[in-house]
Amino acid sequence: MELPLTALHLDYHIPELSIPAFGRFDMAHYLEQLRRSDAEAVTLFAKDHFGNSFYPTRAGHRHRDLPCDLLGTAAAELRKAGKRVLAYYSLCWEKRAADLHPEWRQLDAENRPFGAEGPWGTVCVNSPYMEELVLPQLREIVGWYPVHGIFIDIAMMNPQGCFCPHCRERFRAETGRELTPGPEQRRFAAESMRRALRKIREAAGSLALCANASWGIGQPVEIADIVDFLVVESQPAHVSSGGYLLQMMQAKYCHADGRPFQIITVRFHGGGWGELSLKSREQLCYEFSLIAAHGGKVCCGDQGDYDGNLDAGTHRTLREAFDFVREREPFLGGRARRHIAVYCGEQGSFPFSVDELPPELPGMAGLLAGLNEQFEFCSTAALLRNLEHYAAVLVPGGTALPEAVRSALDAYVGNGGVLMREPSGVPEGHCYWEDGGETILLRTGYRPLELRDGDRVITGLRPPLVPYAPPGVPWRSSFTPPAPEGVPGAVARPRGAGLLIETAVPFSRNFWRTGDTRLLRAFRRLLEEAGITPAVRISAPGFDVNIVDDGDARERIHFVHYSAERNTMAGYPVIRPHTPFTCRVSLRSRRCPFRATLQPAGRNIPFSREGEELCFELPADTPYVILELEYQPEGEL
Fold first, then answer.
1. What φ, ψ does residue 418 adopt, rounded to 5°?
2. 3-state secondary structure at position 140
3. Which residue of 149, 180, 248, 468 shows the fewest CB atoms closer than 10 Å?
4. Could you give the residue ranges of the DSSP H alpha helices within 398-474?
5. Which of 90, 65, 43, 95 is nearest to 308 (CA)?
6. Which of 369, 340, 91, 315 is nearest to 214 (CA)?
7. CB-based burial of residue 454 (10 Å sphere; 0-12 exposed, 13-18 middle, 19+ buried)?
């Protein structure tokens, strides 16, 4: 199945309560809303977290109040309209199975059910659940309905590991040892989930297969080779992991791997899927643009009400936002230019869900985006595969370096590369600072750097120290204490033909926590010391930029403008309507194009050459514009 640009994910976790569901369900109205939003692909529910199926299953449980074959009717109508259809199946969250078969539940090392306090239980893929329910139902869906693919959700295990009798018995049979907490158990859990997904892959036959969180930042690539495309759920309401930055980070991370991928956001302001608020057109257009500009396919989640109906206003707004990115579809695609790699490593371990990213990752994204740098977030595999193409590699604080990565980076620097490494485990050093007669206790944020022959102290760094408030003392962050006497902020160490820069300051973590623009200036100084200059300079703030090469004769610079006004109830700023403006853009380039065109307007843009830069006056008529540059083969200067 070819992955289309726009998709709609219909969430239908509908319990069986004393008040019947679907009491006022209107199939004609339901189908009309799907036509109104006009997504090119739609995910329909086959089975929800409660274990209720939305088709007349024989292997499982049909929802008690279901008035019709919702999956079959909608799939046939959508297919007739030329849409791609995915059937949603909840894997490890299944309340009915957990209630009817307690022996199928995931258990922790103390034999306590995982997730028992939540609205649905968690079942284990090593139990008979797979053979008795999951695979028979998937065979029904594949054999009965005109769907293009299967969407597997909640392919996850207990974060502490599953120790149910089935896991214990299988581990004992495979190893001859007892299952105990630790790295070996985690590897066993990961292989258990891979084995389950390979069975699902077989049951799906020729249909496409995807799994939510099939690959995202911090998750190794264990299941990416089993699925046909990557799916990552990312919402600005995930504030602690980056907010809007998270959507851009996830898209950059997946794009660096080179596989087709889809980023799922939602129409709700909150972090959940059921609070039934509606983002504005401007909000959705911005999120969709951020995903598309970085090579992703756009998916938006909606939630049916208890009667199963969909809201007409919601789908009208979705149509407008889908059309906004579809207008730019002819100018999407290509390969993002490789310039700076941010190595993420594996912050978590599949199949254990990564709930929150370390602050260093969104902090690093904020620093680089704020400086209009061209960068990618890289997994281990992507970094090792593309290392020679990057001018610099940045390792945020707290990121572990596996031996294979460490060896590759040593060779990279020796051959002329630039490696910048932030400190990990900054000691709890403190200093006092007098502010208006008040003595404030501060955490220095510095790690001592040992100086050696040939090292060069990087001067001009005066990053703000991170305020530390003892109990009962308010935080203060409106001032910049001086750096501790004699302690350098960073050191440049020549290594072969390249350069290793070690910072004493955790720039990324501090920037995420404070947003202090003085850190931007200090970080720019570090990049300049390494000879790394922005590929694009823009006279106006707030742009997310991505330079994409489309063959040798064309490149496109994607500009997505961020303009927010207030926080939503979810704790992040809401996007306001765009006000057109013009700004100056300078692009470093050794080539000179014969034509520059503003897309999708198709307007020719005059430009001049000033030294090594091409200079434009960019009309930001909408929040997402694309500057297309076309070159003659002989355009090399």
1. -115, 125
2. helix
3. 180
4. 403-414
5. 65
6. 91
7. exposed
Q: Which two tokens stand for residue 324?
A: 């906004």
Tokens at residue 457, please?
């102290």
**Under 8 Å between Cβ of 492 and 499:** yes
Residue 610 in tokens: 């000033």
CB atoms within 10 A of CB 571: 14
- Name the helix (H) or strand (E) containing 630: strand 624-630
Distance, in Å, from the CA atom of 326 to the CA atom of 507, rounded to the nearest integer, reads: 38
> CB within 8 A of 358, min separation 6: which ones?
347, 396, 398, 509
Q: Who's near 34: CB < 8 A, 6+ residues apart?
A: 8, 42, 74, 77, 78, 83, 310, 315
Q: Are 302 and 273 in contact (CB under 8 A)?
A: no
Which of 379, 307, 315, 298 is CA-nearest to residue 342?
A: 379
Q: Is 401 helix (H, G, I), strand (E, B) or coil?
A: coil
- Measure the CA–CA gap between 165 and 163, rounded to whole angstroms: 6
Helix (H) or strand (E) holding 80: helix 70-80
Looking at residues 41-48, what average pLDDT do you find? 98
DSSP 8-state class, residue 403: H
| Element (DSSP H or E) covering residue 564 | strand 564-567
- Amino acid letter at 519? L
234-270: per-residue pLDDT in tens? 888 887 778 889 999 999 999 998 889 999 999 998 7
In angstroms, the Cα distances linking 302 to 11, 244, 272, 318, 522 are: 6, 19, 11, 10, 43
Q: What's the one-letter identity of residue 613?
A: E
**CA dist., res. 343 & res. 466, Å (int):** 24
Q: Do you find a cis peptide bond into 471, omega within 30 degrees of 0?
A: no
Cα 68 from chain centroid? 37
Contact between 577 and 620 (Cβ < 8 Å): no
Cα 171 to Cα 169: distance, rounded to the nearest angstrom: 6
What six digits make up the tokens of 322?
């889908």
Chain-centre distance of CA 510, in angstroms?
Answer: 21
* Structure confidence at residue 425 (pLDDT): 61
Which has the closest alpha carbon to 380: 349, 401, 365? 401
Residue 543: which residues within 8 A CB-CB, separation 6 or more?
372, 559, 560, 561, 562
pLDDT tens string 325-346: 999 999 999 999 999 999 987 6
Contacts of 63 (CB under 8 A, 6+ apart): 14, 16, 21, 22, 52, 53, 54
Closest CA to 296 of 548, 630, 509: 548
In angstroms, the CA 93 to CA 99 distance is: 11
| Cα 184 → chain centroid | 28
Amino acid 49 reads H
Please give the pLDDT value at position 586: 96
